[in-house]
Amino acid sequence: MPNLYIRLPVLRARLNIETRIEDALLLEQAEIASRELDQRTGRQFFASIATRYIDGSGSRDLALDGDLLSLSAVATDSAGDGTFATSLVEGTDYLPMYSAEQYSAPVSTACYRLLRLTTYLGGDLAVWPVGPRMVRITGTWGYSATEETVITGLGAAVTVADNPLSAGASSLTVPDDRDALAVGDSLLIGTEEIFVSAIRGTTATVTRGVNGTTAAAHILGTAIRRRTYPWVAQQYVLERVSRRFRREQTGFAMLGGGDGGSSGYGVTSWRELEDLQRQLMVGHGIG
Fold first, then answer.
1. How many C-beta atoms surround the C-beta of residue 229 within 10 A?
2. How many whole angstroms separate alpha carbon 285 and alpha carbon 287?
3. pLDDT tens digits, 215-269
4. What is the dihedral of CA 67, 68, 69, 75, to 10 degrees?
5. What is the mean predicted confidence (pLDDT) over 89-116?
6. Quick one: DSSP state of residue 272?
7. Global pTM?
8. Of 251, 271, 266, which is closest to residue 14 (Cα–Cα)?
9. CA 26 to CA 248: how far, in whole Å?
10. Cα–Cα distance measured from residue 125 to residue 123, given in angstroms and rounded to the nearest whole number
11. Does residue 123 contact residue 184 with C-beta atoms inside 8 Å?
12. Are 230 and 278 in contact (CB under 8 A)?
């Protein structure tokens, strides 16, 4: 369950849980709420490296099927034979754009939404080829690729403690600090992303090379970073999980219930949860 938009220690603190007995339920609910948010907004708030195939538009603008943070390759299948023989060059053949009117990044987001052909810059292609899966784009997709660059555990920065951490290793030595690293965290070591699926003592069980990254060897002392997500996405998932957890525990509706009411944890009302969703869709350039 990679790409959880809220951390387990934050959930425990919000719900005043001091043990790990409820961890499995909290993680399950965090996964449900995170993917629910993706579905509701039509976006993914995590970054993943992938190749996608886009239907050709027959015009100079090609609408993308998701947020694109960076590009590494664009090619077209003008012959329709599946070879994608024509490679395009950014800045000559096309320009990535944030909207049909916006070349520069808006304040709210830095995601590309379309590619515009640029014959005036020397490109040879006047319009994108027409048809399904005519354009192949490789890059980093998603709404956000932020990270916590320094993780502190037991008063020191968390680094690779294995000598070395091999590319095939499925465990990672971690500090004996329950909040420094937690199950559900997505970690970054170099360019590799790693998902933490279990922790026992100072040993974490991990899934290597997630979100399209490549598992690699890492030397002793290499910094370990943590993937982070937009604040409003964290808040949305936090409130959803808090309410659902409370309902699981009590077996009846939240205090106040319905559209307005409180959860007893200072959790927002359903109306305020919808306001959070509107913030995501309007205030953050989503829609």
1. 24
2. 7
3. 999 999 999 999 999 998 999 999 999 988 887 776 644 444 443 344 443 444 5
4. 180
5. 77
6. H
7. 0.84
8. 266
9. 11
10. 6
11. no
12. no
The span from the CA of 51 to the CA of 65, in Å, is 12
- Burial annotation 83-99 (CB, 10 A radius, 16+ → b, else e): ebebebeeeebbbbbbe
Distance between CA atoms of 181 and 72, rounded to whole angstroms?
Answer: 31
Residue type, 185: D
- Asked whether 173 and 161 are in contact (CB, 8 A), the reply is yes
Q: Can you list the pairs that 77-82 forms with residues at least 24 positions away whose Cβ atoms lie under 8 Å?
A: 77/129, 77/133, 77/134, 77/135, 77/136, 78/129, 78/134, 80/129, 80/131, 80/134
The letter for the amino acid at 247 is R
CA distances from 122 to 39, 95, 137, 265 (A): 39, 12, 21, 60
- pLDDT digits over 202-214, tens only? 999 999 999 999 9
Give CA–CA dist 70/113, Å, rounded: 11
Q: How is residue 273 written in tokens?
A: 């949860």
Structure token digits, residue 195: 């998902």
Domains and CATH numbers, the chain: 1-45+230-287 (no CATH), 48-141 (no CATH), 147-227 (2.40.33)
SS3 of residue 262 by DSSP: coil
268 alpha-carbon distance from chain centroid? 24
Positive/negative CA dihedral, 21, 22, 28, 34: negative
